[in-house]
Specification:
Strands 3-9-10-16-13-12-11 form a seven-stranded mixed β-sheet, sandwiched between helices. Helix 2 packs across helix 11 and helix 5 packs across helix 6. The chain is built from 15 helices and 23 strands. By secondary structure, it is of the alpha+beta class. The structure holds adenosine-5'-triphosphate. The site of adenosine-5'-triphosphate (ATP) has 16 residues, from strand 10, strand 13, strand 16 and helix 11.
Amino acid sequence: MEKLTMDKIVNICKQYGFIYQGSEIYGGLANTWDYGPLGSRLKNNIKDAWRKRFIQENKNSYEIDADILMHPRVWEASGHVGGFSDPLIDCKECKTRHRADKLIEEYDHNINGDALSEEEMIEYIRKNKVPCPKCGKSNFTDIRQFNLMFETHRGVIKDDTSSLVYLRPETAQGEFVNFLNVQRTMRAKIPFGIGQIGKAFRNEITPGNFTFRTIEFEQMEHQLFCREGTDTGFYKFYKEYAMNFLKDLGLNTDKLRYKDHEKLVFYAKEACDIEYLFPMGWGELWGTHNRTNYDLSRHQEYSGKSMEYIDPEDNSKYIPYVIESSVGCDRLTLAILCDAYDEEILEDGTTREVMHLAPSIAPYKVAVLPLVKKYHSEYAKELKEKLSHSFMCMYDETGSIGKRYRREDAIGTPFCITVDDETINNNIVTIRNRDTMEQISINVDEIEDYIANEIKF
Ligand code: ATP
């Protein structure tokens, strides 16, 4: 297959019903995207896989669902009101706008732009003559800090400062402010984790690359609360746990790599990203951070509530350390789509488009296809209805069987069941495997067990 471009993946997503431009009939709203029937199923299946791995199978882990709107003091304590800004820099030549940290990271991949001060960034850009990605010249303005928080107002009086609230820029604070609630109500003992999946909003300076960077997106975040001294062990554990999860979702290992942060933000002890090779290059997919006891200490300071944990074993009191594991659900969905898409040249010289999605996350698990509409559709419709109690199931009776197989290949349906005379006479169906294109015959009564076994995560 020719190298996959982002334009191509955008078109495929639109054509097959994965992702559409937001507000399209009004000309679209830039950098907003709506998930269609296939995309929303895929994304939900990815969330379910995360839930299974990070909550259900993970010892002492609890899921919450906190509100998007939080007390404004939360964002003062977290440092977002004062410090959640991106360093904005303009190219004086072609007037394009950039993030100074990303310019540097693109220029030298080993640098973590996040951890550089404004002065360090300007000095680096000038000294190395870092070029503008658009025009190639190196003539930039000074850096200005641009806060990414979306503000809104509650109540009827908009100019009253007490009405100011923020759309959360990350889900993590929901976990921190509920630390005491979860610990008490679940009688949780440290180490334990709190995770959640939810929307976050950032007024990004340079949104783009499809759903890679948007202003509204979903995060799947997990915070492990632990005792100082055990933190590095858990940090290593979660770094690997995230990588294994990505591999189990079927991502190509050659397109995944760790990037350890050498220069850290002041409160962090260890930090690392997992990067994926997107069509536009390597990009951050997942962050694992040892955040020390910074977050809970700050909330203790700002709320006046003690965030100390009393260890039932030895009655010692301490503010727990936090290991954060954080991934953007939309970015992960994009990586999975890019990774799964293929154009295969078949023996007869034709090309088939196929989405090699892991069966566990494929939007539809099975398609039921009557071989000849006139003779087999009644049986096939009944079978589809029966299977729909257990799986997302597609029914298609239009066009040749070959064309119908191709349509299912293109949307990643792992199994096609063909109903023919053998089914009507002897209850035997053929099941075609999307990846190998091989077919096996089985009894109708065995279909459910067969599919259930194949789509396990
Ligand atoms: P970046 O350096 O790409 O701006 P970040 O380091 O600010 O990301 P975090 O705050 O660590 O990101 O957020 C955790 C995860 O959320 C990221 O690894 C990414 O997958 C996702 N994410 C962050 N910002 C966006 C965005 N604007 N659009 C989509 N996903 C995002």
